[in-house]
Amino acid sequence: MPPDQGITKDQLKGQLFIHPEECIDCGACESVCPVTAIFPDGSVPDQWQNYIPLNYAAFGLKK
Known about the structure:
Elements: E1 7-10, E2 15-18, H1 28-32, H2 51-58
Antiparallel strand pairs: 1-2
């Protein structure tokens, strides 16, 4: 599967969602993220933890 196939973009909100079950953990997205906002599941810094449920909610998903 191509690395970007596990990523969905919400055109209205300008957010990206990386589907954990489809991600192949290649790291390609980390190196091109313009705001250094991509972290492996379980490694999100404390200061960004509150964004996890917001990101899931933006795509109608639950964690």
